[in-house]
Amino acid sequence: MGATLMTTMAASGASFLAGVGAKPGSTKKSSFGKTPDGESVDLYKLTNKNGAEAAITTYGGSVVSLKVPDRSGKLGDVVLGFDSVDGYVNNTSYIGALIGRYGNRIGHAEFKLDGKTYTLAKNNGENTLHGGTKGFNKAVWAAKEIPAKDGQALELTYLSKDGEEGFPGNLHVRVIYTLTDSNALRIEYFATTDKDTVLNLTNHSYFNLAGPGSGDILGHILMIEADKFTPVDSGLIPTGELRGVAGTPFDFRTPTEIGARVNSDDEQIKLGGGYDHNFVLSRKPGDPISLAARVREPKTGRAMEVWTTEPGVQFYTGNFLDGSLHGKDGVSYTKRSAFCLETQHFPDSPNQPKFPSTELKPGERYHTTTIYKFSTAK
Ligand code: BGC
User: Fold this and answer.
1) Under 8 Å CB-to-CB from 66, ≥6 apart: which residues?
2) Residue 285: burial class (beta carbons within 10 Å; 0-12, 13-18, 19+)
């Protein structure tokens, strides 16, 4: 470990490495440093009965590390993250964070609800991205360990006040992370509001199943359960069309290397600078939760399935990572060194009457579930 990193960790009081090799079936809390405002931030390390680990910080509810076995049984980290809270305060890539109030973009930073126009921050060109200037990724969440039948669970809560980032309604949000004993990370999102509002919660983990710092993710083999995707304009706002994936680089119905078509001259790939698109999941009616995607990394044999109750998933190939962020152990996060599969309602839904609605009304309970399941293949 470099001297600079050690100094940073000491200065912020971080104890990221404390508790290495924690007791199976336990959860440990430690300090992760302080925000620039002096607020204390914690790190919770959940260890399941097999020794797999998920570390989650109260800053942004971010997943800091996720250690799962490779085909030889060796545990390794599969997500990007930082050694202390400072990295989370300073990055604008939403690394590992909970995203709210609205995952992905809202066009022209405004929407109409009940005849009233709500104006939001333009934090991505003309548009709003991931909740605005200070989204849920920059909030310090309250946390407590809670019992779970099938693993270790952490409950995070946050009150987003009426008018925060321009959105209406006092919104009570609760997220439960469970690291199950079958090596899955389950994320359950709950919310209630006291005024009509819009809501689209997700988690922005960046995965590299061979480990951060192992190179690009172009050799990962991906399947997405989607017959259609939502094409975008130059600001990455959906045009409203649901386009068939057949015959396009967006056809991942048969497992295909991520890198096979990521540099093709397809117009949509060019607009995204690679993949940065919402896929319309082929959910079976009546199924409470369905398989959205499956990824396999041939060298380590690690595999991940994504299951969700959501209608869409944003597949993003880290096109805007440019090497300027230095994560855990000083690893630099370069273009395409990780991918995201952000389960969600479609981008810009508040302005797209044909998309599934993201409205939440007083008296309704928002509840969605996404599960990242890990296994190994020969
Ligand atoms: C968006 C990208 C964005 C990334 C990080 C993704 O969900 O679709 O365009 O760059 O998040 O902010």
Assistant:
1) 53, 54, 55, 77, 78, 79, 185, 205
2) exposed
Q: What DSSP element (H or E) covers 43? A: strand 40-47
> What would you report as the CA-atom Rg of the chain, rounded to the nearest whole angstrom?
20
Q: Which residues, 6 or more positions from 70, have their beta carbon under 8 angstroms from its beta carbon?
A: 76, 300, 301, 302, 376
| CA-based nearest residue to 166, from 188, 214, 193, 198 | 198
Please tell me if the CB atom of residue 236 comes closer than 6 angstroms to any atom of ligand 1: yes
Q: Which residues are catalytic?
A: 204, 342
Reported as a single tens digit per residue, the pLDDT across 256-302 is 999 999 999 999 999 999 999 999 999 888 899 999 999 999 999 99
Of 241, 223, 222, nearest to 232 by C-alpha is 241
Residue minimizing CA distance to atom 9 of ligand 1: 276
Question: What are the tens digits of pLDDT across the range 358-372?
Answer: 999 999 999 999 999
Residue in this structure with the two tokens 């390390």, named with its chain if needed: 45
The reply to whether ligand 1 has any atom less than 6 angstroms from the CB of 276 is yes
Tally of CA atoms within 13 A in the half-sphere of 1 that contains its CB: 13
**DSSP-assigned letter for residue 207:** B
